[in-house]
Structures are given as structure tokens and as C-alpha cells.
Specification:
Blueprint lengths: L15 E2 L13 E5 L2 H11 L5 H4 L3 E6 L5 H12 L6 E4 L15 E7 L2 E8 L2 H12 L2
Parallel strand pairs: 2-3, 3-4
Antiparallel strand pairs: 1-4, 2-5, 5-6
Helix pairs in contact: 1-4
């Protein structure tokens, strides 16, 4: 199946955050960060530490991770409980179905711009400073 492209509608309603909550209002979503791999995760988390996380808690920016490759016992007993300590939602795909069409590039965070549910831009960011600057435009510092 080809990756999702500009002009298509993004559906995030099947995702749950680390507390088991569903995405409340997908209409507020402006930017989606998708991490696939440890390097992308480190870049995203370092950038998020430097911004006002209210944009994540309000649902304007979503941080999405596919944890379907993780053994269920590890995800439920170790990984997800650790994620609960973060002060912002991390949207988790437990079975890989919701993120299977999200575009990825090794070592980069996939950054997807969204307007009224439709994708307007897709880029891959491999540098923390560039991602931080990009997030600051949506979130402030």
C-alpha cells in the first residue's frame, strides 16, 4: 500500500494515547509528528522539551508512535507505563494499522501538515534544531 500523500484525508480516530484516551477532536489537528525508530524518537522528544506542550495537550499537534513491533507484554508492562509520565499525549498505534500508510524516512521525524483533516504538506526532519523551530511556529516556546 503506498504512503499517504498530500491531498488525502488523515484519520487518527483509531489511535489511543498512553492513558487509553481516544483522540477527542481530530478537527483541531494542524500538525502530526510520526516517529518510527529510536533516532526519530530522540529528535522529537528533544524538540518537544523546548516548546510549550499546550499545543500537544490541546490536540493541535499530535505525536504519534507505532508500537506494534513491540512484544505486547513489554508494551503493556513497561513501555506504556513509562510514557504516562510525559506531560503531553503520545498517540499509540498498537497494531500498526493506523500508521501503516504514514510516510517514513530512516532517522527522520515525519512531519505532516493538516488543514481541515486534509494533508497539505509532508516533510522529513532529521535535525533537532529544525524540528524545534518548526514546532515553535505552532506551539511557542
Amino acid at each position: 500500500m503506498p504512503p499517504i500523500a498530500v491531498g488525502e484525508v488523515l484519520n487518527v480516530t483509531a489511535l489511543e494515547n498512553q492513558h487509553g484516551d481516544a483522540f477527542e477532536d481530530p478537527a483541531t489537528l494542524e500538525l502530526l509528528l510520526y516517529v518510527n525508530g529510536m533516532t526519530a524518537k530522540e529528535i522529537a522528544r528533544a524538540s518537544i522539551e523546548k516548546i510549550d506542550v499546550q499545543c500537544l495537550t490541546a490536540g493541535r499537534v499530535a505525536y504519534v508512535a507505532d508500537i506494534s513491533g513491540m512484544p505486547i507484554i513489554i508494551s503493556h508492562l513497561v513501555a506504556v507505563p513509562r510514557l504516562r509520565d510525559y506531560p503531553y499525549p503520545i498517540w499509540l498505534d498498537y497494531d500498526g494499522a493506523s500508521t501503516e500508510r504514514l510516510p517514513v524516512k530512516e532517522g527522520s521525524v515525519s512531519v505532516i501538515d493538516i488543514e481541515q483533516g486534509g494533508i497539505t504538506k509532508i516533510e522529513f526532519i532529521a535535525e533537532e534544531s529544525i524540528l524545534t523551530e518548526r514546532l515553535s511556529r505552532h506551539c511557542g516556546q
